[in-house]
Amino acid sequence: MELTTRGGFSTRVFGTPPRAGQPALVLVHGLGLSGRYFVPLARRLAAQGPTVLVPDLPGNGRSRAAARRAPDITRHARALAHWHRRLTLGPVVLVANSVGCQTAAALAAEHPHTVSRLVLIGPALDPAVPARHQVLRLVEDAPREPLRLFGIAVSDYVVTGPARCAVEFRHALRDAADSFEARLARVQAPTLVVRGAGDPLASPAWTRRAALLTGDGRTAEIAGAAHAAHYSAPDATAALIRKFTADGPGEPS
To answer: What is the CATH number of domain 2-246?
Structure first.
C-alpha cells in the first residue's frame, strides 16, 4: 500500500493502515535513496502485527517533487515531524540507516514526543572522519553489499539526481561536524545502535560513542553484514528490533 500526504510526501505502508495514536514503526532511508531498500525489513516487521511506514523523504525517490532543492538534515527532520502530525501518529519506533540516522537523531532531539524508541543502523557520518575518507569508505563498502542492493541504489541515485545527491552530502557533512553528536546527547528515547560486522563507515568505536552519547543507549553487531545490514540481514535485524522494543528501559539487548 502507498500513502501520499499533502505536498507529495510518498510513504509505503506495510501491515495494518496507520490509525490515530496506533503504535507504528517508521523506517528512514539514507542519502539520495528511497525507502525501497527497507522493503525486506519492513515486511518482516509487519508480519508480527505492527504498522510499518517507510517514507521517501522530500527530494528523494517518489517524493522528489516535494522539494525544489535538496533539503538539509534539519529540514528533513521538520518534514518528518509535519508528516507525523498529519498522520496523527503516537510515539513511534524510529529506525534509520546511514545518513538517515542524522535525520532520525534530529527528529528525536527536536521532537521527543514523536519517538518512543530509536534504532540507528550503520550511523553515518562519523564526525571524526574527513569527507574524503568518508567517500573512500563508501566505495569500500559497495562490493560488500548484495548485488541487488547496488541496483536499487544506482536507480534511486538517478531518480534523485547526482546534483541533489552531492548537495545532500554537503549538508550531511556539515550536520555531522556541527550538530550530530549534540543531538544524540539530547535524545531521550532508549536507543539501539546497530552495525554490520563488515561496515567500513560505522566503526565499532563510533557506534559505541553514538550509543554512549544518548541517555539510554546500547549496541549490537550483525555478523556477515556491512553498511546496509537491514537489507543483507533483514531477519537478524528484525529480531534485534523486536527484542529491543520488548526490553524495558536500561535493559541490555
So the answer is: 3.40.50.1820
The pTM of this model reads 0.94
86 Rama class: left (phi>0) / alpha (psi -120 to 50) / beta: alpha
pLDDT of residue 4: 62
Q: pLDDT (tens digit, 9 = 90+) per residue, 174-189?
A: 999 999 999 999 999 9
Per the CB < 8 A criterion, the answer to whether 78 and 48 are in contact is: no
- What is the Cα–Cα distance from 111 to 17, expressed in whole angstroms? 23
d(CA 169, CA 89) in angstroms, rounded, equals 30
pLDDT in tens, 69-95: 888 999 999 999 999 998 888 999 999
Distance CA 88, CA 215 (A): 27
Residue 194: partners with Cβ closer than 8 Å, 6 or more residues away: 119, 120, 121, 122, 207, 219, 220, 221, 222, 229, 237, 240
How far apart, in Å, do the first and last CA atoms of the chain sit? 32
Task: Give residue 253's pLDDT.
Answer: 38
Nearest to residue 69, comparing CAs of 157, 170, 153, 167? Answer: 167
The DSSP code for 119 is: E
The closest alpha carbon to 121, from 251, 19, 238, 213, belongs to: 238
Give the integer Cα–Cα distance in Å for 127 and 173. Answer: 8
Domain ranges of the chain: 2-246
Alpha carbons 191 and 201: distance in angstroms, whole number: 19
